[in-house]
Design goal:
261 residues; alpha/beta; Rossmann fold; two-stranded antiparallel sheet
Length: 261
């Protein structure tokens, strides 16, 4: 069983991958984010006009910018100084009024007063944090009563220790997908080795079941409003065939939660 990872280990991994990550998002190579789970999370957040919104694990600012373009007063936090530098560069080139902070998301309640934000978001980032339970508890403190927190994850079914697609040389993934050991959770390593990336690197993350994520959100005090399993349309898959697997199986999971008020 791998040892739990630390904030510093995760920070160093994302600092190392920052340039390749930014290239993947900015160039459109991260089509899952740009077509599937990113727009789905944004739709689930609607409306954000005029709201104070905090984006946790904002990276190079992709989702923070999407929120700001729709009228949110957005702030973003990330522990990677390299990613925050990139986010601030985008803000300087095309100002949207976003304030970025290089810090551990578990410390947001030390920076902002209780109930300051109407909404908290985390776009595919909580699983990469050393202590997501602490992050959720801190988020609970800084969101107002009746306010919402929404976060997306790689679907727990799709990050099991045994996860093998049947493939052929011509068409890549052809199904079916072999999945096993769903309940074997804990710290793991994501190997970013896709050919479309500028270079390859590794990042630590947590494997958890849906039940474990649910328990963690309840322990923080949130109530789940609903869960979303986003998928592309057939037309989107026709345009971007690499998304075919998202029509077959749920690649992502969105938690939509509220702070009781």
């Amino acid at each position: 069983m791998p040892e739990p990872f630390t904030v510093d280990e995760s920070r160093a991994a994302w600092d190392a991958g920052a340039r390749a990550w930014d290239d993947a998002v900015a160039s459109g190579k991260d089509y899952y984010r740009l077509i599937v789970h990113g727009p789905a999370l944004l739709t689930a957040c609607h409306p954000v006009q005029g709201l104070n919104v905090l984006d946790l694990g904002c990276g190079q600012g992709y989702f923070s910018r999407e929120l700001a373009r729709r009228g949110a007063r957005a702030a973003g936090v990330d522990f990677s100084s390299k990613l925050i530098e990139l986010a601030e560069r985008y803000e300087k080139d095309a100002p949207l009024g976003i304030h970025y902070h290089c810090m551990d998301a578990a410390d947001v309640d030390k920076v902002w007063p209780p109930g300051y934000f109407s909404m908290i978001t985390a776009c595919l980032s909580l699983q990469d944090m050393a202590d997501p339970g602490a992050v959720l508890r801190a988020a609970f403190q800084v969101v107002r009563r009746g306010g919402r927190m929404l976060f997306s994850l790689p679907h727990p079914l799709m990050v099991t220790p045994h996860h093998v697609w049947l493939r052929d040389e011509q068409s890549g993934k052809t199904g079916p997908l072999q999945i096993d050991r769903y309940f074997e959770t804990g710290p793991a390593v994501c190997h970013w080795t896709m050919d479309r990336l500028l270079y390859h690197w590794d990042t630590p993350f947590w494997r958890r079941t849906i039940d474990e994520w649910s328990q963690m959100t309840a322990a923080a005090g949130f109530l789940i409003r609903r869960l979303h399993e986003p998928r592309p349309t057939p037309e989107q898959v026709q345009e971007t065939p690499e998304l075919q697997d998202c029509l077959w199986l749920p690649n992502f999971l969105i938690f939509d939660m509220v702070k009781p008020g």
